[in-house]
Amino acid sequence: MARTHITTVVNGDETEFLTEDSTSLLNALRDEVGLTGAKEGCGTGDCGACSVMVDDKVTCACLVFAPEVDGSTILTVEGLADSGELHPLQQCFLEGAALQCGICTPGFLISAKALLDKNPDPTETEIRYALAGNLCRCTGYDKIIRAVQEAAREMRDQ
Amino acid sequence: MKYVAPSSVEEATSLLSSSPSAQVFAGATDVVPQIRAGRPAPEVLVDLKKIEELVSVANDEDKWTVGAATPTANLTDDPAFSEEFPGLTEAAGLIGSDQIQNRSSLGGNLCNGSPAADSVPAMVVNGARAVVAGPNGTRVLDVAEVVTGPGQTSLDADEFIVEFEIDRIPARTGDAYLRMIPRTEMDIAVVGAGARITLAEDGSIEHAALALAAVAPTVVRVPEAEAALVGNTADDETLSAVADAASEACDPIDDKRGTVAYRRQVAGVLAKRAVLIAIERAQQRNGTN
User: Fold this and answer.
1) Which of A63, A115, A130 has its CB closest to that of B32?
2) Share of chain A above pLDDT 90, in %
3) With respect to CATH, is domain B50-167 assigned 3.30.465.10?
4) CATH number for the segment(s) B173-284
5) Which domain holds residue A67?
6) How close does chain B come to A93, measured CA to CA in Å?
7) What confidence tier does B287 reach under pLDDT thresholds 50, 70, 90?
8) What is the per-residue pLDDT for B289?
9) B40 — contact with chain A (CB < 8 Å)?
10) Is B99 in Cβ contact with A111 (below 8 Å)?
11) What is the pTM of this model?
């Protein structure tokens, strides 16, 4: 099967890879680009563990065909930290114990970033709706919500 | 499976005509789960999102034109569109999570052919028309004519919807959409109800449209409820007739998410409530009270 050549910007770096047309963006990121932060939970867009931003829009990488992103800009959880310093969301998730097994965490961090990009001061209800596409089977969500609130506060104060 | 992304409607229709097993897609939020569930993958996947008309939202004096592959997030984020059609905007905004909203589209929601598609009753009550492209040019269908049964449409294999046309909303008119799900978010409608009401200058109901989702093999209009509303106000007797007609129009399935009896009853309740919201919105336009 012929492979298609894709050129993208991933986490700020120009990135090229070869892919089969039927490959999902998630599998291309994990297997061709070597970024394994985004996880496959369901593979059908229900759980959000594969959330990434494509051209600044949060989306499930499992529902995107890899050739679709030719020319796009992608942000994965690996691109959140800046020169080795954790993003406030990452720091607050760590300090607030907003993760247990960690499988869902990269997706939550990306969805939370997408929310705070649009709305720096969300209410608890707004956070819960914005994260409704991310499932966590460990935490019961409360610590995640509080971590996002705390990160939003810190980011507003910066 | 081969991926192609044509840049014009003509290029897309000629691709579909030359490859019988080609399938169009927009956000793939239904296509990918279906393939993963075992449906045979098409030989050629035609991505419609690189065609300008398919992803544009525009209006003129007469109508709105919404590209069939436009992400529903673009509609909910459009203040002018959502102000004019709050019901349709709410319906489109109920399709899945933020991740899905950035991919899901009105064209996909319609052509997937789910009886529970949230945006379809809201499009139907607003009289939306689908502009369909095929090898011999375009034709225009009422949205209500597109879906013929679960997963089935009246479109030929080499046709696809380019855009939806929705006439600008008249004065003293409001739309609404409500759905019942057992959870707060992220679920499929057990019942959906879309309503649109136009009031006469004296405040009585001049025109009414009511459509239900998830209670029959396709979205259904409820002409008996519409007839009960026209010429009246939303008094108890009229609303009770609306609820009865809505329940009567149901031909629902019985499953773990809702029994036949439950769906029938909820259809009546939601129909009444959607009508009341549409009336309230109609009153707010041009100050009729």
Assistant:
1) A63
2) 97
3) yes
4) 3.30.390.50
5) 4-79
6) 21
7) low
8) 42
9) no
10) yes
11) 0.96
